[in-house]
Amino acid sequence: MVHEDWTNTKPSTQDFPLGENADTEEGRGKFRFITFQDPNTVKLKSVQRVIRSHGAKKSLEGRKKKLTAVTGNFRHFKTDRYQHASAKKQGNDAKSSIDIQSFGSTQSLAISNSTRLQSLIGNKTASQALEPVCNFSEATAHQKFHKIFRDGFNDEALSNAIMLSLTFAANEYHFSQECTTFKNTTIRHINQKIGSSLDPPAVSQMIGAILLLVGVEWRLGNKPRVEMHLAGVMQLLTFCDSKLIHLHDGIKRAIFWQDLNAAWIIGSERRFSHDIFPELHWGRNPFLSSVYLLPPGFEPLRRVFGSDLVKVVEDIYALQQYRESSIVDLDDSPSLLHLDNHQASIESRLYAHFQTANESNGILAGCILALYLCTYMLFSEVWAGHFIPSHMSSNLLRVLRDAKKSILWEANRDAMLWCTVVGGAFAQLGVTRSEYILLLHQSGYGTLPSAWKETEKFLEKFLWPKKIFYAPGKAFWDAYSLN
């Protein structure tokens, strides 16, 4: 059986003990009385607000029970309110607009509270936790949930995996008891499906649920579970090949990107390179050979890079030229897919070069990390999550600190200066950004020009799309100039 190897190591609900569950049916049916040492405490506005909220909740539960007794199933909600909210959201922020009614009706535990689901998906930070598997934005044609998974909310494993990802992110990436419940439920339903008769939608939904689990696990730094889940995905793909089951290309893109992200973040073994799926194939346009150039700032590093990495840099420069001269239409699927393939090819090859780079060669490792940051940020209209750029920026800072006394850097101070600005521009505000500024001031390899325009001219000798990088670059330069 194709799944035997995986099922021998597959997680069970016993791996994630729930402990004592306070949210039982009995517990939900009772009020809880809490005493205060100071009687004035109960008069506080925050306490009064909690009391009123609790009372309203219990009143609503009472009405639900009455309706359930009559109808046998409680699914009552006001569609006009969600339509109005969706229309209002579209007017303010079209990119993150969501149509709650397209979710469909289901008795799944995961979306029994559709209002909460709407709130979580509307939360930018929480919704980014679904990247790069899917999105719920109505403003983009790329990786839309319903294009990939159809009626996926009727699938218990996928719907619980979505709620796990959203709740985990909304909880500032702390694993709560509720997250444990969603995770256990997801795994239980995946295990129940293994070995059963699977049609194409069911396989896609199972893979989607596993990939969302992978996204949670790499954020937790759990390398063994990430690799185990990805091995399961590999076996599911083998099963699809044996049964001639065709998967949506969005599933394959999700597999590729989740595998690559996990490899960068926690160093898990890569299983899916950019050339494993024909749908992600990308090649140079032979009629536009003039755009594949090595920027002059990198010329002194040509021998350090080697011919293969030089070609990657040329491809990044071509991507920069395209992004500088074109306006991306998020409703244009072919253009988005071409951009995605272009990035996939570049980023996958950069990872391979980073893996083979000699650790003592800090200039090569630093440049690869900076090149990856540039490539990632050249097209982020669809995926705007901060995890990858902030991680790459932190790694680059460590490499630059370790390598600043290297003889190679002494001969290539301009390249190190470019790497530092790239890392600082896309670093998270706070300690990492401050450390980049401190590195610039304390280093002996040169300083930035005193005027921003002159700084931009210097950066453009390497890779620096003015139209896209202006805002973060200028903000970093301003912060540097003030210190």
TrEMBL record:
Residues 1-24 are annotated as: Disordered. This is Transcription factor domain-containing protein. It comes from Trichoderma gamsii.
